[in-house]
Each structure stands twice: as C-alpha cells, then as structure tokens.
Amino acid sequence: MKQVIVTRSDLKLGKGKLAAHVAHASLEGYKEAKRRNAEIVEEWEREGQRKIVVKVKDESEMLELFEKAKRFVPCALIRDAGLTQIEPGTLTCIAIGPWKDEEVDRLTKDLKLL
Amino acid sequence: MKQVIVTRSDLKLGKGKLAAHVAHASLEGYKEAKRRNAEIVEEWEREGQRKIVVKVKDESEMLELFEKAKRFVPCALIRDAGLTQIEPGTLTCIAIGPWKDEEVDRLTKDLKLL
Description:
2 copies of one chain form a homodimer. Helices cover 44% and strands 25% of the residues of chain A. Chain A is of the alpha+beta class.
C-alpha cells in the first residue's frame, strides 16, 4: 500500500508552506480512503504508511491526473486559502491513496520524485 | 485551533522527503488528538485545518520540546525508517496538536517558520 502526493513544479512555494500543503493532501487522502475501505488504510498504517512526494509541471497536468486517478483510487484535491504566497483557490496538491500499490503505480509511475 | 509541525534545521533532507515526514507527523498528531478530544479536532477541520511548519536547531532541542509539549497537548514524534538519506531511527519531526491556539502557541511561539 502507498500514498502518492503530487505537487506542482511551477508553484514556487517556500518549503514550509509546501510541506503544510503536502500534509493537508495526505490527511484528506487518508480520510477519503478510510471512508472507502478502512482495511486497506489499516494495512497501509501497519506497513509504515509509505508516502511518496512527486511533481507535475503545472495545474493542467495536475487536474488531468486528478480526473483520471479519482476514477480508480480515493483521491483528494487541495486548494489554497490564499492567505500568503499564492492566490486564493490555487490548486496546490493532490493525494492519490493510500491504496493498493499496483493501482497507485499505474497512475503515478512516470512522475518524478520531488 | 492549530497544528504546529516542528522540523530540524540540522537535517538536510530533500524537500520531498521533508514534506513526507511533515505529513507523517501531521497525520499522527491528528489521530492522537482525535483520541483525546474529537470535538477539538472537528473544530480544527471546520476552520480549515491550519498547519504551521516551524524549525528547531537539532535533535536535542526537538526532544526537549516534545517532552514538555506532550504534558499539555496531544503530540506525535516521528522517527525515520532509514531507507534513504538518513540513519534508521533518526528523529525527524514532531506534531503538536491540532489543539487550542493558546496552548499550542505557549509552546511554539518562539520558533521560526520553516
């Protein structure tokens, strides 16, 4: 089991803000996956809750991935409240899973690590 | 309500790995706080689940803060599995809360943003 969190290369976020958004996505992905299949999430937790942070080029690549991924795997899409650094509503991260490796890999295997 | 996640300045983690550890801490802090007081956590979620990422100098400063903080606020301490970049068991992050602002602030107000 794994969770992949996808960030945008074109947003030049400070590393603290970036980490906060990745955490936001991770938690929302966790809750969404748990609603769908708590056993998969519990197995992910027992295995050490593997999280992998990757990147896409920009918002359109992120949205395209999200639209595809959510048909197969529990996902979460994070938008910024816009209080600092970026415009309100900016799409910052998506979480894919936690879910079964093979289904997550099929969607994310070509993405580069952040 | 807020959650503060504390990182170490002396660990030179890549930003993807750093973000994954912050997410790990955030999720464990969420679960710990929820066990203690689900209403506080729900209020934090309703308010937009504010997360603030800060830094301390090194492991000893982190441990000292953790020992103090856990007497007042639900906390989580994250150690690395050591598969990449750092030694197994390295302490990487702590989460303080989500919990009431005034109690979290009392512990973290002097820490710098990451």
